[in-house]
Amino acid sequence: MDVAREPWPGHWTPLGATYATEATNFALWAPEAQQVEVCLFDEDDTETRLVLPNRTFDIWHGAVSGVRAGQRYGFRVHGPWDPATGRRFNPAKLLTDPYARAVDGALTAHPAIYGHVRPSMDEGGDHRVRDDRDSAPYVPKSVVVDVHPFDWRGDAPPRVPWSETVLYETHVRGFTMAHPDIPAELRGTYAGLAHPAALEYLTGLGITTVELLPVHQYVSEPDFLHRGSLNYWGYNTLAFFAPHNAYSAAGSRGQQVDEFKAMVRALHEAGLEVILDVVYNHTAEQGDGGPTLAYRGIANEAYYHLDPADRSAYLDYTGTGNTFKVAHPAVLGLVMDSLRYWVGEMHVDGFRFDLASALARSMHDVDMLGSFMTVIGQDPVLREVKLIAEPWDVGPGGYQVGEFPHLWTEWNDRYRNSVRDHWRGAAAGVRDLAFRLSGSSDLYADDRRRPYASINYVTAHDGFTMRDLVSYDRKHNEANGEDNRDGTDDNRSWNHGVEGDPTPSDPELAALRLRQVKNMLTTMLLSTGVPMLLSGDEMGRTQRGNNNAYCQDNEISWMDWSLPAQYPELGELVRTLLDLRRAHPVVRQRRFFEGVPVVAGGRKDIAWFTPSGTEMTETEWHDGSLRTLGMYLNGAGIRSRGVRGEPILDDSFLLYVHAGASDVEVRLPGRFWGVSYEVVVDTAGAGSAGRRLRAAARVPLVQRSSLLLRVID
């Protein structure tokens, strides 16, 4: 390494490492530091420490000549060690650059990674006593990246309207790791997800938007590593600008940046949006006994919510030990810079914010008028992309479903719970289900939000898969090594009488479970709002009853590409429903239903029917024993207009959802609602599609089944 021994003054902005041919500028915000060193590492890990010579405002900076792209580096920050006041400076700990565009290496479980004394990985030590062992051999290194022009080939965001969006939640590694048509060297990588075999599957399924589990550079928790486990999901962020290096086939010295861009470009060329699941609510440094990897050693009292009664301790609204203090101006600036970077430089189309309520906390309370929400709403870049909130955290007042501002959509767990309860026969009637089917107006209409504010999901990465939802009453997380204590016990699942997958000798049970999966898929994909499909549910993926597979980087979590041949009707059903959804605006409304005709004397925009063929009465809406509901969607009653103000006309549809334990006969509505009907989907009757039925006809519904009819006038 041939670098100057004395850094030049450099510039205080931009933050991070900015490569230039003559010299690379380093800038770090550290307001209470007494000295900052940038540390450069040779290939043999020989370290060169250089003191940043200048301080402008609260930023330490200097330019170093001779530094090339791919150079590994870190910071050592000097200052007082005084946990009682929230200060945890320790220059023995090499720190990741918060603005690093790439990171090389992984975390090693060693006591030296902790800023406080910890005798061994099996002994917690005292978080108030400083440890002076060097952590550099055991922590990842930041990488200088040459942000050169990338050949985007005229890339443009697909900009799929919210009302037409179908989300597909998946994992870069898990989706590609076992795919037989993706070359072995590309499996588990960004390049693997960009491979034609992956793109062909995604586009053939009919989804519009890929939502990726975290791809920000993350590390596994040291205690996990010590016991031979790891963090597979990635909700343990270290660097908010860097693509996770383990997902790169090309390398980790900056190559991961271009590989990620190439993946986005390929997905866009296929017409697919890319949304990132982002974790700004906490970091990988955990609580007061956690490692010192970056933020804790730079400005602990600024980056984290500390306990005002004991500033050596942290307020934990996230369940991870710490909560990022996004209300602080510098921390808010970091988050906003990161978001803009992923949109502007990496071309992503939006974000799903993990535990978003934590980001809205000002001092302690959730404040939807606070700085984070306000800045997002005013930002000319971010207000144009998709914003999805996980609208809760684990702190007091953290449950905020239905409360986020207008630009936001939300994971609707009330939708999830209602659909699960209906199909397992545990719902108190059908009233709540009707709200969920029609867009959850009870949650979103009162503040003039739209139906697409509701992200409708039945399963997600956190919890059972859909196949497991109908196969297990209880979680089976023994493989996680936590004595089955981890993961929720509130699964709202039903094994249909036998715990675990049925044997081939029980075809009746297997058929019932398959029908129940089809029922939930049909319900979700025909509900007003934005459907989110968990990857693998369309092919019957199982996690063997594990409802918290965060540490399972193996066949438990990976896609099993032999399943489409075993359950072809699931994929066929999903493709049929998504084709229908794409073709028919009546099932993806942009405005809430009103339950009255659009034109005087016409049919209502939406109507609800009992099995007897009459409209639901107020008494029936409160009948807790009712298990069958008919939903009529009037294609001539769509309240939104086309781009030129023209009326939108469509076919009308009638959907029956019957969760009863016995077969039932329903009577179709009279001729006012339609002269005849055509079967589109019958989850209990293979080959019945296309069958014609007369108005007011009596139609048998098999126990626990769905029936979708197209109205023929």
Automatic annotation (TrEMBL):
In terms of superkingdom, the source organism counts as: Bacteria
Name the NCBIfam families on file. Answer: glgX_debranch
Check the record and name the Gene3D superfamilies matching this protein: Glycosidases (3.20.20.80), Golgi alpha-mannosidase II (2.60.40.1180), Immunoglobulins (2.60.40.10)
Listed PANTHER family: GLYCOGEN DEBRANCHING ENZYME (PTHR43002)
- Listed EC numbers: 3.2.1.-
What family does the Swiss-Prot or TrEMBL record give for this protein? Belongs to the glycosyl hydrolase 13 family.
GO molecular-function terms, A-Z: amylo-alpha-1,6-glucosidase activity
Basic and acidic residues compositional bias: what residue ranges? 477-493
Residues covered by the Glycosyl hydrolase family 13 catalytic domain: 169-581
- Keywords (A to Z) from UniProt: Glycosidase, Hydrolase
- Which Pfam families does the entry link to? Alpha-amylase (PF00128), CBM_48 (PF02922)
Annotated stretches, region: Disordered: 477-507
Stored InterPro entries? GH, GH13_cat_dom, GlgX_Isoamylase_N_E_set, Glyco_hydro_13_N, Glyco_hydro_b, Glycogen_debranch_GlgX, Ig-like_fold, Ig_E-set
Q: Which GO terms describe its biological process?
A: glycogen catabolic process
Protein name stated in the entry: Glycogen operon protein
